[in-house]
Amino acid sequence: MRPLLPCLLAAACSFGPRVESFTPAYAPGGVNATVAHGDSTFTAELLTLSDTALLLVRNNRIVLARYGAGTDVVFPALPEQYAIRGRPPAGAVREQLRLLSRFPSGISPSLLTQLLRAYRQDSLDVLAP
After folding, report:
1. Strands 53-58 and 84-85, how do they pair?
2. Hey, where are the domains in the chain?
3. Which has fewest Cβ within 10 Å: 39, 70, 110, 112?
């Protein structure tokens, strides 16, 4: 009976973030971003990220923002260390951003086709340098 008590106590404890303080728990979308590209600045939602780019949705348009394309991306709800300034995010930062995106498992080619159709696009809008 004694070994059971520590197990019961451990099971009663909770670890990790709480729903009340975890913003993505309140909405189905990804984390919001402020994107600065050239002379313009806009807000967007993070759909997913890859080794080479971010996939965002802005004003009902799907946008591909390649790292190093003269684009700075800041996530207002996150600390400054999550900002992307021309280089791909590394390690733990990338993993956290992936988890905070709308599609943390990524977007397959067939899903991308469906998304483009849903947003009435023939192709992605690409932010060019």
Report:
1. unpaired
2. 27-123
3. 39
> Which pLDDT belongs to residue 19?
55
Could you give the CA distance from residue 88 to residue 100 in angstroms, rounded to a whole number?
A: 16
Give residue 121's pLDDT: 96
Q: Cβ atoms within 10 A of the Cβ of 120, count?
A: 8
Is residue 13's pLDDT more than 80?
Answer: no
First to last CA, the chain: 67
The H or E element containing residue 96 is helix 91-100
118, 110 in Cβ contact below 8 A?
no
Neighbouring residues of 57: CB distance < 8 A, sequence distance ≥ 6: 44, 45, 47, 63, 102, 119
Average pLDDT score over the chain: 84
Supply the pTM of this predicted model: 0.77
Q: Is the Cα dihedral 38, 40, 41, 46 positive or negative?
A: negative
